[in-house]
Amino acid sequence: MEALIDAIWESYNRDNTLKDALSGGLYFAEAPGSRPKTKMPYGAFNIITNTPLWTMGSETSTRREEYLIQFSFWSEDNSRSEIMDIQAAAISCFDWSTDVEVSGYTVTWIERNTSQLIREPPDQVWHLIIEYHIRIQAT
Amino acid sequence: MKDNSAQFKAHLLQKRRAVVHKLCFIGEASAKRRAPHKTSRFRDSITTEMHPTDAVGRYGTNISDPPYPFFLEFGTRFITPRPTFRNSLEDVRKAASTWKH
Question: What is the ipTM of this complex?
Fold first, then answer.
C-alpha cells in the first residue's frame, strides 16, 4: 500500500499540468487541519479498498492486488472552468498511465471507474470525485 | 414433442432472481456491518429491493435529505471518506465469484 501511495505522489510530482492546476496541492487522505484552510483548488486521495486476488499457488511470487483509489478535488471558482481543467489534467496524468511505477510491483492497469461533480454545502464549492481501479502484480 | 421452453425460461428467471436476491442480502448485511453509526438511522435505512419481474435487485439507503450517507461514502472537505457501500460491493463480488448452487 505504501508503495502505491509513493507511486501516486511521484506521478503527481512529475506532471506539471496537474501540479499547476492544483495550486493548493495534493494530499493523502485530507488537507491539513480538521477544517482545512488550504487554499483552493486542492485535492486529496484515499485508498477505498485493497483486495488481494488470490489464485492457487500464487501466495508469493505472482501476488496480484486490486485497489480502488478515490481522488477528490475542490474548487471555489464559481465558473466550472477551473474544476474542468483539473479533471482534464488528472485524467491525462492517470488514465491507463504507464508512468506510475510501484516499487516491487508491475502495474497491470489503471482504469478510471467513475467521476462525479457535485456542489458541496455549506458554501457550494465544486467537489470533483474521480475513482480509479488499479491492479498491480508483484514482480 | 411438447414445447416447454416457456416453463424452462420461467424457471431460469426464478433461479436468477433468487441468486440476485441473495447477493443483495449479502451486500446489505455487509453495508450494515460497515456503516458508521451514532444513532443507527443510517444503518437501519439500508434495505434491499427487487425488481418485480426481472432478475435485478439493489440495496442502499433512502436517506436523501440531508444526503449525509453520500457525504460519508465519498467524504467532504471536512471529513475523509468512510466507504460503506463500495466496501460491501467487494463482499458481494467475492460471494458471486465463489457462488455454489
Answer: 0.86
